[in-house]
Fold each of these.
Amino acid sequence: MADLSTTVDGLKLPNPFVIGSGPPGTNANVIGKAFDEGWGAVICKTVSLDASKVINVQPRYARLRTADSKEIIGWENIELISDRPFETWIDEFKQIKDKYPDRVLIASIMEEYREEAWSEIIDRCQQAGVDAFECNFSCPHGLPERRMGSAMGENPEILSEVCSWVMKAAKVPVWAKMTPNVTHIEDPSRAALAAGCQGISAINTIRSVIGVNLGTLRPEPTVEGYTTMGGYSCKAVLPVALRMCMEVAKLIKDEFPGRSISGIGGVESGNDAVQFILLGANTVQVCTYVMKVGYRCVHQMLEEMSAFMDQHGFNSLDDFRGHSLQYFTTHHDLVERQAAARAAAKAESQAIRADAEWRGDDFVKQTDELSRG
Ligand SMILES: Cc1cc2nc3c(=O)[nH]c(=O)nc-3n(C[C@H](O)[C@H](O)[C@H](O)COP(=O)(O)O)c2cc1C
């Protein structure tokens, strides 16, 4: 069986499947469940120093289903970062690391635009034993009002400054989590990598309005008759996430060789995850699908990835990481390639019109060609 283990930025993971920040990593109990089921690493729900400022509403999710099978393909949330006290989180980080010393626990962190706040949160999480950080520069709702989350991630200049504060304080690897709500994801990614972050996580949710209820005429999810702009995730975002993974991978290849990518968005199977790795990802995160079906889905994902690797004779993830990046080119180049292929086919078909070119082994193909003129 293929070896799915991987070492990323010095972190040793039994497999590349990582619980993405959100409800599936919301406390020590569920993080333990994820490790027990075999997830390669867990990123906790984003924590901040002062949870009293984080006030959630209900309902905070709305789902998009297909018309026929009612399958959930899109998911909008207006959920904020964790509203659990920071002290509780610190205790739980310690408990998790005591119980699972060999497993990788990544703290997702977010703070205000102040260096002291970032160094304090990093120091305290490090003392509690977390293995790495993912900086949430990408939450699209609520916190931008406090210049947090995507307010930072959409602005490469601010990002560069904040990442340099983070890198001054961090003694463990740091991944910068990007928002997809920008024109060129390369710009904020470059700022974070130039400031020294080891990796890029992409993508967080896409700013969305999931729909308007035609009975009440109110947009959803409706809270006391109103809503606010939300973040879109689930199967429907996979193509956007793959495109952004490809763009970040090209940036890393050209300008920051050796840095890592954690691909996120719409992963529901081992084959979805394989596609992120083919486009340069080192690890692949799953959030919404775990909310749909539970933690056990990792078993099937592992089987599917392993079957893919056996089918192609790949022994390790390195054997196919980034393989498909070489097949992206410009539209202009596609036109030229197609013209060249057509010219070559035409030349071949003209060549067999000469009697001297008839061959016994290809006789039927040649007569067939001539039938098409
Ligand atoms: C309900 C919900 C809550 C989320 N909370 C966080 C969060 O606290 N921090 C964060 O970085 N991302 C958060 N995310 C974003 C996910 O980690 C992920 O980037 C995004 O949902 C796309 O992946 P998916 O399609 O596998 O869910 C949340 C997503 C959902 C659906």
Amino acid sequence: MMSPGHAQQMDILLIFIGVMLLLVLGVIALSMAKSRRQKKALPKAPEEVPPQVRAEEKETVVAKEVVKEKEALAPVAPPVAPVPTAPTEVDLKEALRKTEENLFGRIRGLFKTDAVGKPLEEIEEILYTSDLGPTTVQRLMAAIEEKLSRKEKADYESVREALKEEIKNIFAGSHSTHPGEGILSKIQFADEGPTVLMIVGVNGAGKTTSIGKISAQLAGQGKKVLVAAGDTFRAAAGGQLKVWTDRAQVEIFSPEGVTDPSAVAFDAVSKGKAQGYDIVIVDTAGRLHTQANLMEEIKKMKRVMSKVIPEAPHETLIVLDANSGQNALMQAKEFHGALSLTGAILTKMDGTAKGGVAVGLAQELQIPIKLIGVGERIQDLRSFSSHDFVESLFVH
Ligand SMILES: Nc1nc2c(ncn2[C@@H]2O[C@H](COP(=O)(O)OP(=O)(O)OP(=O)(O)O)[C@@H](O)[C@H]2O)c(=O)[nH]1
Ligand SMILES: [Mg+2]
């Protein structure tokens, strides 16, 4: 039993504990209220972001995870030769700078050094040494003679305008005037089934390189491209083409052990037709127009393709190295006689002083120049526009 004194002490202790508890609870309540006030003053916490934003964030996270999964599952890309990656397009005026200097730069210089009474013979000589070809030079000289007065013939601006006008007329006759709207606009597409392009030309003109560049651009436009390794002549040719098709990310048709280029061409067009390809591009071995047996072989290649698709090849394009100047004209004439070309690809326009050959080609063959190569990178191929070309030549 507890004595009455003890019981009194216990009561006091209980009251003290109760008061202490109340005090502690009060302090807690106060600090909670304070922190709530601070939260209100802070910027929006993540929980308060609108629900649609949270949903977008979630989607991004999910998408990132899917990409990660895909990356993990994707087959390892085959080793490909490094491609220069600068995406910048070569400036046409820059690419044609040497041609401009060689052609109109020299005519300009002529007028600067001797301001009056320009001898037309000097202009004629400059034109003759500019890889335009004799027929073109005669046509240009006739235009100056006929259209300009004596006084105008001594005036650089008048001579320049007369030449510019006549060169435009020459291009108009060769169907090269089409403005540069990308290479798709330069290709005659088949109404149905694959469009077949046959690429021909002498050794080292730039056939394989141009095929790589064309393929990359067509694949970039969503076309399904098949490239046929029709150069069975050189052992290394297939490998070179493979480097380009890997870069362009298109398929190559290069059957093991087949040495007959006509068989490769036939099978490639058949495959293109059976498997729904949009474009079949056939590479060929380089050859000189003087090599009669090789010219017969390439004619046969062309013939067998038409057995699969009567209109094939829809385009027979000659690749010409602009540096070969007048020789390029000769090559084009001979190949045209054998294969009825539908157009030309003029390569290595960058850095050559002989770009004037484009005018000669338009004048003497009326073959449209469809594309021009302006460098060694995969993106260095442009659709040819005579308007842009002439403007780049007459830039000063
Ligand atoms: N600067 C420059 N070089 C080019 C251009 N086109 C091609 N070349 C270079 O020309 C060389 C020959 O190119 P290829 O594509 O192998 O020529 P090809 O006509 O296939 O040669 P063959 O198969 O031997 O008949 C390569 O070194 C290319 O890089 C161009 O537009 N500009
Ligand atoms: Mg080649």
Amino acid sequence: MNHHNPSSAAKAPAPSVSHPIDSDASGTTGAAPATLFGDLRDRFAFLKGFLGSPNGVASMVPSSHWLEQRVVRAAGLAQARCVIELGPGTGGTTRALLRAMPAQGRLLAIELNPGFHEHVRKVVRDPRLHVELGSAEDIGAFLAARRLPAADAVISGIPFSTMPFEVGDRIAQAVAQHLAPGGRFVAYQWAAAVAERTTPYLGAPHVQFEALNIPPMRVYTWTKAAA
Ligand SMILES: C[S@@+](CC[C@H](N)C(=O)[O-])C[C@H]1O[C@@H](n2cnc3c(N)ncnc32)[C@H](O)[C@@H]1O
């Protein structure tokens, strides 16, 4: 897909599903928390990703454990069949989501940065997880390619404030379209841009604040109206 914008079209290929994950001895198994070595490796990879694309990543460090837990609670994943993560980064949030999901759930993680995409595929190995390279604008194409149902929850850490207005608008539209009735959209952001893009499609969000993160974050939650 070609959206003619600098944030996604230049980097994101047309949606196509990734190959099965290779075995890699350096990866953690499934949703297990990272080891000390894994944590340092992830932080180094995250900083490298930030230095390569400051606006696309928008943070020098991954989300804190406290923020991960607040996001997981807001998403309500205990019964989720299909969950989508936008911008898994180096996979810390991905592991936290997998730990909260049921055994039969599926997690579709969409990452724009090729280095992060490859990193998550290597270090987070879980049969419930599908990690795809591309833009969050293309949620619908990735769901269709994997034959996944509408999402019970969409979780986003992508920086709406540094992307062009039209890109953020398309992502908000795609999230609203591909959420199941009663499904939740949880977005953690410092800036309010995500709320400005999403409120036209999903109404006013519930807002929480997590101080124990660098930087502190607002956690916005929308619930799509039941059909
Ligand atoms: C602040 S980081 C969050 C990473 C991780 N989820 C965390 O909380 O530690 C934002 C992530 O969104 C990704 N991203 C930015 N724009 C995107 C887009 N249009 N589609 C998918 N991912 C995107 C970045 O590459 C980066 O991995």
Amino acid sequence: MAIAAADAPLTPTETRVVSTDGLQTFHMVRPQSLTAVRTWIFVLAALVVAMVAVGGATRLTGSGLSITEWRPVTGAIPPLSESAWLAEFEKYRAIPQYELLNRGMSLAEFKVIYAWEWGHRQLGRLLGLAFFIPLVWFWARGAISRRLALTLLAIGALGGLQGAVGWLMVASGLEPGMVAVAPVKLMLHLTLASVIFASLIGVATGLKPAVRNGAPIRRAIIGARVFLGLVFLQIALGGLVAGSKAGLTYNTWPLMDGALIPPASALFVVVPFIENFVDNVTLVQFNHRMLAYGLVAFAVWHAWSLAGTAAFRRARVLAGLTLGQMVLGIVTLLLAVPLWAGLTHQIFAMAVLGMAVVHARRSGEGA
Ligand code: HEM
């Protein structure tokens, strides 16, 4: 990657190279520096997955509403004295969830749900630091180009937005009569996390030049992009299943209440019609099931269509991961969402997404 004119002074992370015809001189970021940048971005992506996992555990343990305020900076310090704990507990006892679901909860029990939510937020703070400090360092040393830095800053802005969406989501659960957060907001929070994760994987993958195996194949590029779009949609639908607790009903497979396709009277019972897609657990679960079958069928067909090409191996792995994720989803449903299954299904979704990003990116490069 040439990043500066030949006559500019070298930065600590650059080296001078001469073009093969010997006529031009470029500055290039040293390969070791690029590897360091790439590793850092992959670590950030891994931290996002950790955030998703702890966020999932926070939800599945019913802990998400235990901290009733948004204090991005001062909230880093948890209650340290007995009186500080009692004050926090008092705030929780004032919200509807305590009144309607957890009346009589002890302080010791409260400390457990508080720990999950605090851990999720603290991980967010750590992620912020792990993003900004190395970014400034690499930028100052010339290890990343201006374009890459701006791309990363845009991803960082999404991270800031994600914090705000997280708070809006929690706030929706504190409103009168609410005992959980609004499903649509949970869906948005999970989908935005997925966008951030996918962007990081895409950028990191692009930093290592692909070994080209000929001209890019059109059907590989289009198929990979369509699949990526469908995975995002499926993750959003999964967020709705989780948010509306639709995994606690119809715990049978392949039938739902004795039918492959439930009657329209059950699928569209809610008025207005559009709200069925968010609030009607029957339709919410049905949509997630159907798209899963569609995704697996598409992934298998896509891999098959690439047999004999260099992209085949990647597409085959992707189809395998998608099939595995479908099986995990079925197990999660049949067991009515135990913590381990819900979490594994959620984290595996990130593996499918990550692989889909790599596949789309590499297919575009003709690898
Ligand atoms: C093959 C592609 C699939 C993908 C990419 C996918 C992805 C997801 C995601 C991202 C969530 C949200 C997790 C959370 O926020 O906790 C979710 C939830 C869920 N999915 Fe899937 N899923 C797939 C297939 C299936 C299938 C086939 C079933 C069952 C027939 C299923 C059942 C569930 C259930 C029950 C939940 C709610 C879990 C909870 O409440 O924590 N999924 N899915």
